[in-house]
Amino acid sequence: MKNIIIFGPPGSGKGTQAELLVKNKGLSHISTGDIFRKNIKGSTKLGVLASSYIENGQLVPDNVTSDMLSNEIESISDSKGFIFDGYPRTINQAEFFESLLLKKNMKLSMVLSLDVNEEILLKRLLNRGLTSGRDDDRNENIILNRIRVYNNQTSVLKKYYIDKLGDNFHSINGEHGIQSIFKSIDHIINNS
Length: 192
Ligand code: ADP
Known about the structure:
The chain is α/β, with parallel strands linked by helices. It has one domain: P-loop containing nucleotide triphosphate hydrolases (Rossmann fold, 3-Layer(aba) Sandwich). It is built from 9 helices and 5 strands, in the order βαβαααβαβαααβα. The protein has a 5-stranded parallel sheet, sandwiched between helices. It is globular, with a radius of gyration of 16 Å. Residues 10-11, 14, 32-33, 36, 53-54, 57-60, 65, 86-87, 89, 93, 146 line the site of adenosine-5'-diphosphate.
């Protein structure tokens, strides 16, 4: 079983690469952002709560997100492995995640971290906003806030996972083309 975190700032291509991993490696994709958006569409209690944070480019509180993630893993049986996209995003979530995996007898295989500079992130997200139907991609201030939140609360997880995983933490240049990035990821996974 391979359990992989795909990590990086908003707009770095986590979701795109995760989808390719699903197609090519048969992993189950868990995207916390996608689950929130599904709940917002369905106007569930969780969706109503999450939307007030997401609309402003803030993180949904850790306890809400971690409970949701735990339920999601529980609902998928017989998986070849998971690709975690958008989780964890804080040290608190990472610590919860570690104890959750331990309880479930699961091991984190690797972290794939996509590096993209902020100017490119902003351009990509504004461009995505033209077609994604996501309000949080349409407004420059919200995008800049998401990047700020990433820098303040999420980017520390790089050091956290380098310390925990050593060689199983992989930095990948996320500014290349989609297929070229996937080729690098495929190579890393096949050689691990
Ligand atoms: P992106 O990576 O492009 O920002 P996501 O779909 O991963 O897109 O996330 C969209 C929004 O959902 C985030 O800005 C945040 O408000 C919320 N969200 C997603 N994952 C988490 C998480 N692990 N913790 C808290 N909030 C989250």
